[in-house]
Structures are given as structure tokens and as C-alpha cells.
Amino acid sequence: MYLIVGVWGGERRIYAAVKFFIFTMVGSLLMFLAILYCYQSAGGETFELQTLYEKLKVLSAREQFFLFGAFALSFAIKVPMFPLHTWLPDAHVEAPTAGSVILAGVLLKMGTYGILRFAMPFFPKALFYTIHIPIFGEANFLGFLTVLSVIGIIYGALMALAQDDIKKLIAYSSVSHMGFVMLGLLALNLQGVTGGVYQMLNHGLSTGALFLLVGMLYERRHTREIVDYGGIAKKVPVYSAIFMIVTLSSIGLPGTNGFVGEFTILLGMFQVDPWYAIVAASGVILGAVYMLWMVQRVFFGRLTNPDNEKLQDVNRRELVILVPIVILIFVMGIFPNLFFRKMEPSIRNILETVKVNSQYEPPSAERPAAPER
């Protein structure tokens, strides 16, 4: 990714690539030290996961607290969680289209995957280890990360609302959507975690598609500024229809993949703390505002810019790329149990590991992830 941004990126590509590298490296070095500590604590014999789960549960809550902190910092940078997100808008804006798609579809999920697959099962006691913070009082990692996730949802949405560059707007929407993913994982019940994992897939699909569509438009006009467009739906009706479908998926319209993920996350968090769920739900409303406002200014109204008169609609090659994405959006939105059934056994296993090794009872862990209908 460093080379993709640094070699093929935009005007500020070196700045964006170096910033991305520094952020990632700082967190990764701390996690590397924590991995070595885990290896020594396990007897210096193996890195095998199941063995480590068993060996590391004997560590004290204080030891797990610092080890979880090192793992969580590294993965939180990759998510990215507020306030460690500042590398993402620069990397997205300067990256070529292919780089932005890889970043949205794959790299950001490494952060949430790492927290769910490694940090939580390895150090479950750390989630509930309480420390006293001056002014704020008693706090633990679970509450702290949940608050940061909710802040990230609202902050990312408000920042997206203020953008004039289409690509930067979508980049900030990623901060908001990944906040939802983290919120689901931190619910520590079957609905929340399943929704979080599902939303990882949804975000990669919908946001990756949005970056592809913006890249196609940029190839034609060489500008991403919203003010340079307006009324282009008259000239590119097929492109506009596909963009609208992906936008509705991104904001969670019922019947699309985004709705299933966000609804399940909010359902899981509501069982833990209704207030977090209520505040996070406002991020869904803000998401509809900034995405639909952008679509209105770019595609509808009068065609005011003469440079848009000769815009070409999507060609056959672009349709081959976009049509399968549109089909998947509806398949994942209408038949989510095709995916939930595959996820549920491994998610139950992770929740059971966290529950047993930390003596924590996940709320409503035994309820089904989604209706069977």
C-alpha cells in the first residue's frame, strides 16, 4: 500500500504514504513486542493459537491489560478508530482508484479482524480490568473503546458532511462505518459481533464500489470537486442508477446489505447499553444526509457545467465490474442467513473463549443472530 500510494498517487502522494507508514509502523512495533512477551509467557515453545489461548489465560489481569493495549493500539490504527484516523483521508484521497479499493475492501478489515481474532480472545481479562483515571473516574478498555467507537461514528459523519471532494467525503464515511463495526464487536453478544463481522463485508463491498465509481468519473473529468458537477444524470443515466444503488446500500436502506449489518449491530448494542445504541443510530441519519446531499448536488438539477455535456456513460468493461457488486448488495440484503450460518460457529467459539477466560457473561449470547425467515 505504501508503494501504491507513493508511486501512483496524487500530488501529495509522498506525504500521504509516509504518514500512513509512520502510523502503521508505530503500532505494529508495540504489538511485535507484545507478541514476543506472549511467546515467552507460553514457555517459548509455540505461536500456535489454541495453545496460546490456554497458556495466556493464566496471566494476571494487569499483564493482560498492557498486552491488550499494545495489540489494540496497532489494530485501532488500522481500523482506524478515532482519534487515530488522520492517516486515512490523506491515504484515500492521494491513492489511485485501485489503492482506495484495496484500502477500503481489505486493509481496514485487518484492524477489526485482529481485535476480534487475537486481542479479545488472548486477553479477555483486560477488557474488564478497571483503572482509575483522574477526572473521569473508573474505566476499563471495553467502555473506553465503546465510547471511542460512538465518537468515531458521529465525528466521521460530521466530517463527511463538510467535504467538497467526493473521494474525501467517502473516506470520512469509512471512519463512521468502521466505528459501527467496532461497536458491534464490543457488544460481546452474538447479535452485535455477527453484525460487526457482516458489516466488514458490507463496508468493503459498498465503499469499495463507491471508490470504483468515483474513479470512473475522475477518469472522464479529472476532477472530484462536487461543484464541478450537477445534473449529470441526464448524460450518464446507467452510471447514475448504479451510483444511487450503491449509495443506498452505504446508508443502510432496507433490502440492501448495509441495513442488515447496521441493524444487527444496533440490536446487539441495545441489549448492552441502550444509550450507546441510540447515539450511534444518529450516525445512520447523518449518513443518509451527507450521502444523499452529495448525490443531489452531483447528479440532479440542471446541467450547469458545459464540460459535462460530453460525459460518456459506463462502457461494457465497467459494467462487467459493477453489475456483480450490485447483485451482491441485494443478495446480502435479502438473504443474510446465507452468511450468518457460516459465521455463527466461529463467533460463538470466540465469545465462549472470552466468557470462560474472563468470567464474563455476554448479554443474550444464545439468541439467534437473525430471524430464520
Explain how this protein is built:
This protein has 373 residues and is mainly α. The protein folds into two domains: 1-139, no CATH class; 155-346, no CATH class. The chain is 73% helix and 2% strand. It has 15 helices and two strands. The protein has a two-stranded antiparallel sheet with strand order 1-2. Helix 10 (190-221) runs antiparallel to helix 12. The longest helix is centred in the middle third of the chain and has 32 residues, at 190-221. The chain is globular and about 70 Å long.
Helix content: over 70%
> Biggest sheet: strands, sense, closure?
2 strands, antiparallel
Task: Give the spatial strand order of the biggest sheet.
Answer: 1-2
Q: Strand fraction band?
A: under 5%
Shape: globular
Number of domains: 2
The end-to-end span amounts to 41 Å
Count of discrete alpha- or pi-helical segments spanning 4 or more residues: 15
Structural class comes to mainly alpha
How do the SSEs run, as a string of H and E?
Answer: HHHHHHHEEHHHHHHHH
Average pLDDT for all residues: 86
Instruction: Tell me the radius of gyration.
Output: 21 Å
Given as residue ranges, the uncertain stretches (5+ residues, pLDDT < 50) are 365-369
